[in-house]
Amino acid sequence: MSAFTGYSERYLNQKTHEGFGMNPKNLICLIRQKSVSNLINSIHIINCTDTALDAGYYNQSHFIKEFMNLSGLTPTGYIKNLLDNN
Predict the structure, then answer these.
(1) Taking the model in full, what pTM does it have?
(2) Distance of CA 57 to CAs 4, 25, 32, 52, Å?
(3) What is the pLDDT along the chain (86 residues), one digit of tens a residue?
(4) Among candidates 73, 84, 19, 16, which has minimal Cα distance to 48?
(5) How far apart are CA 57 and CA 31, in angstroms?
(6) Spatial distance between the Cα atoms of 61 and 51, rounded to a whole number of angstroms
(7) Percent helix, strand and coil across the chain, each rounded to 5?
(8) Residue 25 CA neighbour count, 13 Å, CB half
(9) Phi, psi (5° rounding) for residue 23?
(10) Which pLDDT does position 15 carry in this prediction?
């Protein structure tokens, strides 16, 4: 991000932490996970590989691991929970 914005890495970390309470990497992860959750909520169907790639993850494994870290559930578990509550 530093090369893209022209600001130093330290400055970006400081400003992101001040504004959002987290570092840029964690903020990007949270935004991607929210985007995926919104997609899942709207269609209730998920192909993990396609969703992972569409959301900018390197692969399905990375997507599932990050989804679990942020939500406490696998994408499949998230959908099951969503469907059970509707």
Answers:
(1) 0.64
(2) 20, 13, 9, 5
(3) 778 888 898 998 999 999 999 998 888 888 888 888 777 777 666 677 777 787 788 888 888 888 898 889 888 888 888 778 76
(4) 73
(5) 12
(6) 12
(7) 75, 0, 25
(8) 3
(9) -80, 165
(10) 92
